[in-house]
Amino acid sequence: TDLNHIEKIASLIKSYDLVIHLAASGNVIESVEDPIKNFENNVLSTLNLLEAIRISNIKTVIFASTGGALMGNTKPPVNEKSVPKPISPYGASKLSCEGYLSAYSESYDIKTFALRFGNVYGPYSLHKKGVINKWIKDSLKGNNLVIYGDGNSTRDYIYVDDICLGIEKCIEYSLRGNKNNNFEKFHLANNQEISLNHLSQLIISKTSSTSKVIFKEKRKGEVIRNFADITKAKIGLNFETQVSLDYGLDNTIKWLSKYCS
């Protein structure tokens, strides 16, 4: 349902104990082009949902935050003690949402969790505009792969099954009770720094493609380097990734090839 309708949301969720909030506009470049729309889709919608949760007397919220975009060009590896420095409206929107999660936890005694995702990829992702999806589609079609910048920028890629595992572990953790405070944040990632140059060649090789890599000017808002230290999630949530980038790419290519041939 539309997250602008607080009363309607409240009526739909009032019988539940926990809300997992995954809805967002997640594209960095689109947020640079239209920051107001990004704010409305991410921050305002999250505030509306938190109000509905407060009205419905729900006591636990798990929120899909971000690692790289929120941290900006903070020296990696980033962790929960790193100081966020967003350089895009998208990153700023997620940091704003975390602020509201913290405020609602203290003001209304709601347990709130921000799971800071790495770059998520995997099957059932035709809607996603991330680099892995785009490059797999382009490579399967023999189109050139475009890198903005010199290709040395890095990300921390995490397979969708591992994200689901992290959410499950957070649910279990919330049921045990977080005694330290009402608002907690965890990085969910692979703790691996993968460059765009390496990723592009890996995808071309795995798709047996004739595609070439071309370079264009770096775009505003995009982080140069990012990967996360997931020690807190390992200790607190008993979380550890199960899927390697190699295996995850194979599965993603297999799934996307059904729609890009």
Compile the SSE list and pairings:
Blueprint: H1 6-13, E1 18-21, H2 28-33, H3 35-55, E2 60-66, H4 68-71, H5 89-108, E3 111-117, E4 119-121, H6 131-141, E5 145-148, E6 154-155, E7 157-159, H7 160-176, E8 183-188, E9 194-195, H8 196-206, E10 213-216, H9 231-236, H10 245-260
Parallel strand pairs: 1-2, 2-3, 3-8, 4-7, 5-10
Antiparallel strand pairs: 6-9
Can you give a write-up of this model?
The two termini are 34 Å apart. The chain is 46% helix and 16% strand. The model has no long low-confidence stretch (mean pLDDT 94). The protein has helices at residues 6-13, 28-33, 35-55, 68-71, 89-108, 131-141, 160-176, 196-206, 231-236, 245-260, and strands at residues 18-21, 60-66, 111-117, 119-121, 145-148, 154-155, 157-159, 183-188, 194-195, 213-216. It has ten helices and ten strands. The longest helix has 21 residues, at 35-55. It has 261 residues and is α/β, with parallel strands linked by helices. The strands form four sheets. The protein has a four-stranded parallel beta sheet, sandwiched between helices.
- Oligomeric state of this protein: single chain
Instruction: Classify the helix fraction into a percent range.
Output: 40-55%
What coarse outline follows from CA principal-axis ratios? globular
**What is the number of beta strands?**
10
Major sheet size, sense and barrel closure: 4 strands, parallel
Chain-averaged pLDDT: 94
Spell the H/E element sequence: HEHHEHHEEHEEEHEEHEHH
Low-pLDDT residue spans: none
Tally of alpha and pi helices: 10
Radius of gyration: 19 Å
Distance between the termini: 34 Å
The largest beta-sheet arranges its strands as 1-2-3-8
Name the beta content range.
15-25%
Which class of secondary structure composition applies to the elements? alpha/beta
